[in-house]
Amino acid sequence: MPKVLISDKLSPAAVQIFKDRGIETDVKVGLAPDELKAIVGQYDGLAIRSNTKVTADILAAATNLKVVGRAGIGVDNVDVPAATARGIVVMNTPFGNSVTTAEHAIAMMFALARDIPQANASTHAGKWEKSKFMGVELTGKTLGIIGCGNIGAIVADRALGLKMKVVGYDPFLSAERARDLSIEKVDLDTLFARADFITLHTPLTEATRNVIDAKAIAKMKKGVRIINCARGGLVVEEDLKVALESGQVGGAALDVFKVEPAKENGLFGMDKVVCTPHLGASTSEAQENVALQVAEQMADYLLTGAVTNALNMPSVSAEDAPKLRPYMKLAGQLGSFAGQLTEHALKAVKIEFEGHVATLNTKPLTAVILEGLLKPMVEAVNMVNAPVLARERDIDISESRNERDGDYHTLVRVTVVTEARTRSVAGTLFGGDKPRVVSIKDIPIEAELGEHMLFVTNQDKPGFIGALGTLLGSHGINIATFHLGRSESGGDAILLTQVDQPISDKVLEEVRKLPQVVQAKALSF
Ligand SMILES: NC(=O)c1ccc[n+]([C@@H]2O[C@H](COP(=O)([O-])OP(=O)(O)OC[C@H]3O[C@@H](n4cnc5c(N)ncnc54)[C@H](O)[C@@H]3O)[C@@H](O)[C@H]2O)c1
Ligand SMILES: O=C(O)[C@H](O)COP(=O)(O)O
């Protein structure tokens, strides 16, 4: 039975889902890194929010971990490359808290426009400072949205409802999507020049880090109000402080900080600053959504292999997972076959899907093929990190799909280009779920791959098969299956035989010395 650790405060709905799905669940919130490191090796899944830092060090101790589930959006607290390298799937819940966070940004905008937190504190203090708090109307003002993804788009929608003008900067926002959202797409300097309010909704990346610094602030309208409900590192807090003091920035509403938990910060106590402690996602609705989603996704992955919302692996639906299972085996075998035959640097891999398989989600099959292919060359490769490793090695990967049946109802062909040659191997499923190799180097053959195999290319001449059988017999090697193929009579021939024990280097050398043999390889699957 898989075991999951919940290490941040999640709605109890998550525990219930895990329990209902037969997954043992421990809840241990607030563990110090060393405490987490000491126990993480016991678990198959780790469910977190933003508090748990899933570092490379923690992952190194997570010897059984298969999935990290982030109940929320940002995964900047997870070392995703380190997880990928260890074959650990990292998934999030990209939509569960978007509305709630967008509403928080709008609430922050109102708070800034009308000094609500300051007026609230003053009124509670019995001061009745009616003339002190003079706000601004939002109607007719321009809101600049930096990052127009899920949350940015909802903020735009709400702002348009408030009769604001909305300009947006997002290099990945298409003109068509901007039109659909009624956002005027502008460049960053134009946004700075036109916006009365600026709200940030990008992830924290190298491109977005410090996007609001002194230089950027100098390009903004005097008195601009800035809202950050995305990530702390987007704003240079020291520069913001200077701009608030000078009046260049008229107010700032911050839900996120460079260092969290933010117990001390240079902006705290400033008159024009409104702060909340990373509450963007904190509504009962959003927390219920993300907890349910993450638990379902993690349970699906651990129990069925279905992958949803993974950041480092292609998605596989629960419906597709059983259909893909026999193909995963076939794909792994074909990749492994090609990888074990490869003796030179890989330049390109061409993967063709024909017939029924082309109607399925083939991305996971490509990942498994690459895993099999790279295994003889790269230590610790798995289907999660194989595409990354292949890219790092400049291997050109192409995939084609043709839903029409060819000679077979379903076929996967892997063609490998190395510095020395181009070689292909193809396979199908017999009876819907039994992998068979049906062509090697374009020579037809029909073979089931077993644990220990001998693959030989030879000249099609009489006497070879008898000689090989005698040689294997003289070493006490029992032949389980024997498959032959040839391009034409007397031409190139191939032989693939399954034997009951591994073939030693000594036996292989003797096979290679048989007069007709061009190449002989012991393969294992
Ligand atoms: N305060 C909170 O509690 C809270 C809650 C939820 C999400 N968030 C944060 O909000 C952010 C946005 O979440 P989302 O769900 O909208 O993400 P999203 O991926 O849907 O949208 C992010 C957008 O940013 C854009 N982007 C990327 N690089 C950019 C750049 N250099 N300049 C401008 N735009 C760029 C992307 O194209 C995308 O459209 C994330 O960082 C997330 O972690 C915070
Ligand atoms: O990225 C997110 O989803 C938000 O920052 C929410 O973080 P939290 O789950 O720690 O509140």
From TrEMBL:
PROSITE patterns per the UniProt record, alphabetical: ACT (PS51671), D_2_HYDROXYACID_DH_1 (PS00065), D_2_HYDROXYACID_DH_2 (PS00670), D_2_HYDROXYACID_DH_3 (PS00671)
E.C. designation(s): 1.1.1.95
Keywords on record: Amino-acid biosynthesis, NAD, Oxidoreductase, Serine biosynthesis
Domain ACT as annotated: residue spans: 453-525
CDD domains: ACT_3PGDH-xct, PGDH_4
GO biological process, alphabetically ordered: L-serine biosynthetic process
Ribonucleoprotein recorded as keyword: no
Pathway: Amino-acid biosynthesis; L-serine biosynthesis; L-serine from 3-phospho-D-glycerate: step 1/3
Reactions it catalyzes: (R)-2-hydroxyglutarate + NAD(+) = 2-oxoglutarate + NADH + H(+); (2R)-3-phosphoglycerate + NAD(+) = 3-phosphooxypyruvate + NADH + H(+)
Pfam families assigned: 2-Hacid_dh, 2-Hacid_dh_C, ACT, PGDH_inter
Molecular functions (GO terms): NAD binding; phosphoglycerate dehydrogenase activity
The keyword Methyltransferase belongs to this UniProt entry's keyword annotation: no
Domain of life: Bacteria
PANTHER family on file: FORMATE DEHYDROGENASE 1 (PTHR42938), HYDROXYPYRUVATE REDUCTASE (PTHR42938:SF47)
Job of this protein: Catalyzes the reversible oxidation of 3-phospho-D-glycerate to 3-phosphonooxypyruvate, the first step of the phosphorylated L-serine biosynthesis pathway. Also catalyzes the reversible oxidation of 2-hydroxyglutarate to 2-oxoglutarate.
Stated family: Belongs to the D-isomer specific 2-hydroxyacid dehydrogenase family.
Protein name per its UniProtKB record: D-3-phosphoglycerate dehydrogenase
Species assigned in the record: Magnetospirillum moscoviense
